[in-house]
Amino acid sequence: MFRKLYNEELGRISVEEYKNSQKSPIVLILDNIRSMHNIGSAFRTSDAFRIGKIYLCGICAVPPAPEIHKSALGAEFSVDWEYHEDTLDVVRELKEEGYTVVGVEQTENSTSLEKFTPLPGRRYAFVFGNEVKGVQQEVIDKCDSTLEIPQFGTKHSLNVSVSIGVVLWSVVQHNL
């Protein structure tokens, strides 16, 4: 038998405990994500995997917003975030801080997700792009590498919030 667990049984930590906990050495850069529901989902997924921070860049909504909260379910209060007008500025800043910047995009010479092994002790910034146009080419040009989620159907396109979940789940399996 399988009994569904009640919320009280899940061992959830408080926002304050989350803020004080050790985070993964991963940050997200959201490059012109227009849907507030996708942004909210990014917060919620980042909370689930204890991601260090989200950088909201370009034409990107920011909390507080009811539509973000609807998907984030409060994760916009636990996950640290910053807004920057220019994605390239964030990429440059993070590279100067020692992050390896990885664009999640279909490109020539991309690494397929199942072949990607993050190096222990290294910090990673994953860039996810606009729902229609993806990550800007000028941002891709500044990335250290690109990562592609293998797909086998006719679309070869995943919703950005789904892509975030797939990539983060895969990467955290390596116990960075």
Question: Please, could you describe this protein's structure?
Answer:
The chain has one domain: SPOUT methyltransferase, trefoil knot domain (Alpha/beta knot), CATH 3.40.1280. The protein has about 180 residues and is an alpha/beta fold. The chain has a seven-stranded parallel β-sheet with strand order 3-2-1-6-4-7-5, with helices on both faces. The radius of gyration is 16 Å and the shape is globular. Helix 2 runs parallel beside helix 7. The model has no long low-confidence stretch (mean pLDDT about 95). Helix content is about 30%, strand content about 20%. Helix 2 (about 35-50) links the parallel strand 1 and strand 2 (about 55).
Order of helices and strands: HEHEHHEHEEEHEH
Overall pLDDT metric: 97
Largest sheet: 7 strands, parallel
Tell me the number of strands. Answer: 7
Lateral arrangement of strands in the main beta sheet? 3-2-1-6-4-7-5
CATH topology grouping? Alpha/beta knot
Please, what is the CATH homologous superfamily?
SPOUT methyltransferase, trefoil knot domain
Instruction: Supply the number of structural domains.
Output: 1
Principal-axes shape call: globular
Number of discrete helical segments = 7
The level of helicity is 25-40%
Uncertain runs: none
